[in-house]
Amino acid sequence: MTPRIGSFEEYQATYNQSVQDPEGFWSSIADTFTWKKKWDKVLEWDFRQLDVKWFVGGKLNITENCLDRHLATRPDQAAIIWEPNDPNEDTITLTYRQLHAEVCKMANALKALGAKKGDRICFYMPMVPELAIAVLACARIGAIHSVVFAGFSASALADRINDATCSMVICSDGNFRGSKKIAVKDVVDEAVANTPSIKKVLVLRRTGQAVNWDDHRDVWMHDALDGMSTECEAEEMDSEDTLFILYTSGSTGKPKGVVHSTAGYMVYTTYSFKNVFQYEDGDVYWCTADIGWITGHSYIIYGPLSAGATTVMFEGVPTFPDAGRFWEIVDKLKVNQFYTAPTAIRALMAKGDEFVEKHDLSSIKVLGSVGEPINEEAWHWYHDMVGKGKSPIVDTWWQTETGGIMISPIANSTPLKPCFATKPMPGIQPVLVDSDGNEITENEVEGLLCVKFPWPSMIRTTYGNHERAINTYFKMFDNKYFTGDAAKRDSDGNYRIIGRVDDVINVSGHRMGTAEVEDAIDQHPEVVEAAVVGYPHDIKGQGIYAYITMADNVQKDEDTIVKEIRDVVSKHIGPIAKPDKIQVVKGLPKTRSGKIMRRILRKVAEGTAGNLGDTSTLLDPSVVDDIKAGAK
Ligand code: WTA
After folding, report:
1. From residue 425, how far is each of 43, 72, 267, 420, 460 by CA, in Å?
2. pLDDT-based confidence at 232, cuts 50/70/90?
3. Mean pLDDT across the chain, nearest whole number?
């Protein structure tokens, strides 16, 4: 069994050991898994070329660790408890035995449709059990999954399918979200009209709504599963074979496909899950993330299932039928570990305490936070109102690229400090550097957050473009992984994450590249130029503020333009990227060399334009007054 730390002293000893002898440390943990063949060498690495291999030569299948190995010890324990969008619909529980059978059936169905090891399979699905089943079925046969959050637009979906040349999309007819019904299959139809690699579209019937059908391409999931065997041998995978691709936004260009490999990802997500949340046998654990994001991959599916946990999956939204839904589910399922994002906490906090007080939350032992910095007010409300002052909050800092939690308290071991992610996990060696890349060793400092030693679940490449991965993460500072975040370290060595220092903004815990939003706005025929910045937003953490210039001859009123721009962004990326504020300006503040001075735009958006600093290098300083006067 994967070991679990019990006290802060034990954490410190474990941490020290993990740094002094990383290979010994990780091999003793890897030993607790099921391998078809053990590794020959624990680690080979070269950050400059981004060539990192863990458990070299090992052979395994991650689903044997998530499923088969539990059949002997916990066949009738719930593996997944699924809670539907509509509270009147039944909860579904899948035991490990049932989940194993369902995954095997699905794996056989995928094979019958022509899928095989190494193929890329795209998912565009609601949060239903079939999503977890089919993701695991891909892993069972060695196909690579690329899950796309079902809030992205057809064009964003098509880009991701084409980048990874996926051969299949798995989707549903529709999606229930709160009181809305979303036409998922229509979005997929529109996307696959522009994706030549797609051979099959596998469709789950969820809402029962009418869909268009292409007999050659589309297959109902229930038909594909019909008559399939509940046994399917797990494909033998190399430790370093790709498990999945997950697209994420960066400061430049289109979103990139972060590639994760099999063994290291499995070992790290399992170990971090068990330790951070202090999961004990019999506990019910619930992470509210969507499987379209890394949190769902690592801490709804792989980490918990590999650890033999009971993991809850929720289809709906926190405010439907009312703002007490999360707490109603905690009460109903007697959830012991609850993991959510600060944006949800802030949104629910704003709805009033009565929604929490109505429900019995005494089952909660550990509360988790992820995705963005948690502000002090939200931290205290979460701690006092939801946790009744007795449950620790694990503020977990990590990224799509890190695969698993990097800096976080270990529940009930690490002393907590509000708004601090506190200490690095065993095996993780964070460093702060100054802008020249010099390591800052003293405490009570702020710096750029890097990691100087490999960890098992780290990014291996960006799909189809290895140079891009090197340039994005390993070029900025020699021999270090650069996170894109700034952090502060206190005198006890606790880390507080300040936020991104690049052109990535974090809206409700979702990463958005400002360049990506600008490119979408530029698709509007009458927009000449757009500049996008983030600004502090009470609920979302950051909001999106867009400054645009329009062609001279445009006669439309501003409301029309604003609406059109929001629509254009929705169409090109998805509703999550719609700007909160749009300001039409005469000109953008540019230097003589043509570079937009974003610092000025950020200050105006933040409402701190009183102190703009030196603007004398601007080509036309008068645009600043116009921008300030029209600030939203
Ligand atoms: C931010 C989500 C502060 C950070 C798992 C990071 C956080 C980005 C925290 C990655 C946290 C994540 N405190 N900031 N606990 N967790 N972030 O790839 O800026 O969607 O770089 O991964 O979210 O977002 P991603």
Report:
1. 18, 31, 13, 14, 20
2. very high
3. 96
Question: Using DSSP, how many helices (H) and how many strands (E) does the chain show?
Answer: 21, 31
372 lines ligand 1 (CB under 6 A): yes
Distance of alpha carbon 53 from alpha carbon 124, whole angstroms = 30
Cα 449 to middle of ligand 1, angstroms: 12
User: Which architecture does CATH list for 94-235?
Assistant: 3-Layer(aba) Sandwich (3.40)
What digits encode the pLDDT tens for the residues 257-276?
999 999 999 999 999 999 99
* SS3 at position 364: coil
Distance 8 CA to ligand 1 centre (A): 25
Ligand 1 neighbourhood includes 373 CB (under 6 angstroms): yes
Overall residue count recorded for the chain in this entry:
632
Give this prediction's pTM. Answer: 0.97
Q: Cα separation of 264 and 56, whole Å? A: 10
Cβ-based neighbour number of residue 486 at 10 Å: 16
Cα(539) to ligand 1 centroid in Å equals 16
Q: Which two tokens stand for residue 177?
A: 């979200």
- Provide the pLDDT confidence category of residue 615 given band limits of 50, 70 and 90: confident
Of 63, 26, 55, 32, residue with least CA distance to 301: 63
What average pLDDT does this structure show over 504-509?
94
Burial of 97 (0-12, 13-18, 19+ CB in 10 A): middle
**Cβ neighbour number for residue 179 with a 10 Å cutoff:** 12
> What is the rounded distance in angstroms from the CA atom of residue 217 to the CA atom of residue 543?
40
**How far apart, in whole angstroms, are the C-alpha atoms of residue 371 and residue 499?**
10
- Report the atom number in ligand 1 closest to the C-alpha of 396: 15
Domain range annotation of the chain: 94-235, 504-629
Give bridge partners of residue 422 from the DSSP assignment: 495
Q: Where does 504-629 sit in CATH, by number? A: 3.30.300.30
Interval 188-217 mean pLDDT: 98
| Residue 93 pLDDT | 98
Percent of the chain with pLDDT over 70: 100
Q: Quick one: pLDDT band at residue 1, thresholds 50, 70, 90? A: confident
Q: 592: how many CB neighbours lie within 10 A of its CB?
A: 9
pLDDT at 614: 77
- Given a contact cutoff of 8 angstroms between Cβ atoms, the answer to whether 46 and 52 are in contact is yes
- Of the given ranges (211-225, 243-257, 316-330), which has the lowest mean pLDDT? 243-257
